[in-house]
Amino acid sequence: MKLLVTGGAGFIGANFVHQTVAERPDVEITVLDKLTYAGNLESLAPVIDAITFVHGDVADTVLVDRLVADSDLVVHFAAESHNDNSLADPSPFVQTNLVGTFALLEAVRKHDVRYHHISTDEVYGDLALDDPAKFTETTAYNPSSPYSSTKAGSDLLVRAWVRSFGVRATLSNCSNNYGPYQHVEKFIPRQITNVLTGVRPKLYGTGTNVRDWIHVDDHNRAVWTIIDKGEIGETYLIGADGETDNRTVIETVLELSGQDRAAFDFVTDRPGHDLRYAIDATRLKTELGWEPVYKDFGSGLHATIEWYRANEAWWRPHKNATEAAYRRTERPLE
Ligand code: NAD
Ligand code: TDX
Fold first, then answer.
1. How much distance in Å is there from the Cα of 282 to the middle of ligand 1?
2. Quick one: 2-178+214-238 is in which CATH superfamily?
3. Which ligand is nearest to the CA of 78?
4. What confidence tens digit (pLDDT) does each residue in 226-284 have?
5. Considering the entire predicted model, what is its pTM?
6. Alpha-carbon torsion angle 274, 59, 36, 152, nearest 10
7. At 156, is the secondary structure helix, strand, or coil?
8. DSSP assignment letter at 48
9. At residue 87, does pLDDT exceed 90?
10. Which atom of ligand 2 is found nearest the CA of 209?
11. Which helix (H) or strand (E) segment is 19 a member of?
């Protein structure tokens, strides 16, 4: 089987390629990645001899048409993925997330290739902190940021291409991922590498915002489950009951690193900051039989801290520039 993975040099895509090489030797993998600031070929170094890497843009229709024509399955991870960046400059988010997805959909339509679309729970907007509700497959779309609105738009393109053109697609919307190879701009790797470099972790606003954490390997196993067993045209929510508020995450990172739990700074809040995400993954569990392996966020976090400790050469080159960019807008609150 010939598989095209877009965004395979990014965090989740690279872990997906690692898992697929290890567990599915019959799959022939091509990765298409633009190698933006978020893409890193080093993340594919352990598997580079087992795959074909193509440096290019998902919005390049000629290139995409050629690669899709030669594939049996496309899994589309490539995206601009960071909310804070989308507030500073939404333009690449519109281009990659909307125009790039459109280019892929036109190619899979033309060549009748099976397509799986990777998306996020942020398309549903946020929940109140005291609301017992969780997102389900029927929750109405209500995105808050340029990032989440372009992901929502790309999901809607997929649904329309299924209905109008009979494209053979499935969609998944997953909660916040953590694990190896995540860029140091994101919350958990930023705080782990802050502690490792002697910088105090930075908590936005009050830190009461809640994210529903899932290990990246559990997300990727769910993606394969949906490809194998999911129904064409359907959406599946992926989550592992990992709801934790941001302050608790920072305190746990500090504690697991042998530091004082209070050794962090409150900084200016993110504009439009979503309060809470929570996933009800009942459909994925009951209909397709998926279960997370990492059921304990604390032990997954500990393993992730150990990975960053052991792989400084991977993240060190990007740390100073990332922190310098944050320093241009972030102000202490106390
Ligand atoms: P990431 O930013 O780490 O990686 C994105 C990858 O896409 C990079 O390798 C980058 O070079 C590549 N890319 C960007 N623009 C491209 C373009 N125009 N053409 C080709 N390649 C391009 O992102 P991630 O966290 O790995 O997220 C992957 C996908 O999963 C995204 O679609 C994201 O919306 C979704 N998702 C992420 C999370 C999360 O917690 N990180 C949760 C749910 C869903
Ligand atoms: O330094 C920080 N301090 C802080 O308090 C950073 C970088 C973030 N935060 C907060 C903001 C969020 O409430 O931590 C939470 C997580 O932040 P991010 O890592 O930026 O993730 P989020 O905005 O929740 O989006 C992530 O999950 C859904 C991914 O980046 C998206 O790609 C995915 O769709």
1. 25
2. NAD(P)-binding Rossmann-like Domain (3.40.50.720)
3. 1
4. 999 999 999 999 999 999 999 999 999 999 999 999 999 999 999 999 999 999 999 99
5. 0.99
6. 10
7. helix
8. G
9. yes
10. 13
11. helix 11-23
All structural domains of the chain with their residue ranges: 2-178+214-238, 187-210+243-275+296-325
CA–CA distance, 5 with 52 (Å, rounded to integer) = 10
Do residues 169 and 290 touch, judged by C-beta distance below 8 A? no
- In angstroms, the CA 147 to CA 80 distance is 7
Rama region for 129: left / alpha / beta (φ>0; ψ in -120 to 50; rest): alpha
Interval between CA 141 and ligand 2 midpoint (Å): 19
Q: Best of 187, 264, 273, 323 to mutate for ligand 2, by most ligand atoms within 8 A of CB?
A: 187
**Does the Cβ of 143 fall within 6 Å of ligand 1?**
no
Nearest CA among 135, 4, 7 for reference residue 80: 7
* Phi (first) and psi of residue 263, to 5 degrees: -85, 55
Ligand nearest to the CA of 329: 2
Residues with active-site annotation = 121-122, 147
CATH number, domain 187-210+243-275+296-325: 3.90.25.10
